[in-house]
Amino acid sequence: MRVRNGLAGVVMLAAVAGCSWFGDDDEPEEIKPNPLPSINQEVKVDVIWSKKIGKGADDRAVRIRPAISGGRIFAASADGSIKALTADTGQVIWDAQIKRFYSKDELAQGFTKDLDAITGGVGAGGDIVVVGTASGDVIAINQSDGTLAWKTATSSEVLAPPQIDGDLVILQTIDGKVTAYDAIDGESRWVYMMNTPPLTLRGTATPMIRDEIVIAAFANGRVAFLDRDRGLAAYDQRVAISQGSTDLERLVDIDGAMQIVEGKLYVASFQGRLVAIDINSGGMIWAEEVSSIEGVGAGFGNIYAAKADSQITAYNASNGREIWNVDALLHREITSPVTSGSYLIFTDFEGYAHVMAQSDGRFVGRRKIDGSGVKAGIVESGGRLYAMTDSGTLTAIEIR
Fold first, then answer.
1. How far is Cα 283 from Cα 303, in angstroms, rounded to an integer?
2. Measured between alpha carbons, how far is 205 from 240 in angstroms, rounded to an integer?
3. SS3 43
4. Among 317, 350, 322, 323, which Cα is nearest to 334's?
5. What is the spatial distance between Cα 192 and Cα 40, in angstroms, rounded to a whole number?
6. Angle at the Cα of 323 (from 354 to 334), degrees rounded to 5?
7. What sections of 220-335 are H helices per DSSP?
């Protein structure tokens, strides 16, 4: 696995089946994913509908999640296809291709056959759907009919879903910048920048918006709390401290899902910590040593950490005490867990959806969704779960 310095050479260091960093002789040591454990199927995982959206991503860092708004689900694929579907039946309302929004000269300069067209998305809110493109643009599409609302250039690549809050579109680029755009015309309203280490994981966390605060996490292991209207930092908090003598050892990126529960922010970093932060004061409430790329879920008074080695651990949200830990899926590249009812759901590199009981972490159900894998994970809405597979198919599932 080759590592290069600089933003242009940012690499993804997520655990990959059959690959690790160093063996006894500085040769790659084979790490095999655990076989699937035998489970007692207490629930049934039903596929309600599936719809092909487009081609899957060539870049492993491109993980395009669908977004749900107003009873519709908006899904995009790496080849540039975007579709609006009814959330209940999967019927296509409209479809668009972002390359149609570019001139021939723009296509020749901004896209190549070797690059995915869409790299970040999907954001949905108000009247628009927003994605980031390989050409370094952010594109807003009208929710009503799939026509272009606006298009504007970003400072760097977008790998996380943009967030829409009223009159603002907030997105984070891999150069350490968080930018707010006017939701009507795409004009830049403000930019906040955090220093970026010479080597980072290939990805960014998705910014969160709570009331008048934008919460953004960065590759240097810090979280910033920004004024929504001006982009000024009210305060920031260190989640992880770089340690070690090499750039690899000092990686402390925050790339995964964060959670807000009862005025507290829960966030985990790679080779760092899982912390609880009081949003009003920015003060640290508790911290536990954790290494996570995918991030955390929340439910039943617990915080669920998807660790870098694919262990999943439940912590008491109030004090950080470990409740239970499951290591049966080691090195299976599990995604950040989401909660639905009393269950915890996540996917893995072979395309299985795993269902666990939040109470004790026991497996209660499992189903293979797509053999190509489901790196983008699960999106939950109204008790139904949606997965965008690595092959470019959107699947709706229910637990019964």
1. 18
2. 15
3. coil
4. 350
5. 49
6. 25
7. none
Contact 178, 231 (CB under 8 A): yes
Closest C-alpha to 334, from 315, 362, 306, 314: 306
Q: Which tokens hold the place of 320?
A: 């950080």
Q: How many CB atoms lie within 10 A of CB 136?
A: 15
Instruction: Note the pTM of the prediction, 2 decimals.
Output: 0.92
Sheet bearing 81-86, strands edge to edge: 67-69, 72-76, 81-86, 92-97
Q: Which two tokens stand for residue 113?
A: 């056959």
CB contact at 8 A, 21 and 211: no
Tokens read off for 98: 């972002």
pLDDT tens profile 331-372: 999 999 999 999 999 999 999 999 999 999 999 999 999 999
Strand 118-125 to strand 92-97: parallel, antiparallel, or no bridges (unpaired)? unpaired
DSSP state letters, 261-272: ETTEEEEE-TTE
Average pLDDT over residues 213-234: 97
Segment 127-158, tens digit of pLDDT: 999 999 999 999 999 999 999 999 999 999 99
Rounded-to-integer distance, Cα 227 and Cα 165, Å:
13
**Tokens (6 digits) for 44:** 């049934």
Residue carrying structure tokens 């933003």:
7
User: If you search the block for the tokens 């009331």, which residue do you land on?
Assistant: 211
Encode 176-207: b = buried (16+ Cβ within 10 Å), e = exposed: bbbbbbebeebeebbebebebbebbbbbbbbb
Question: Among 10, 225, 254, which Cα is nearest to 119's?
Answer: 10
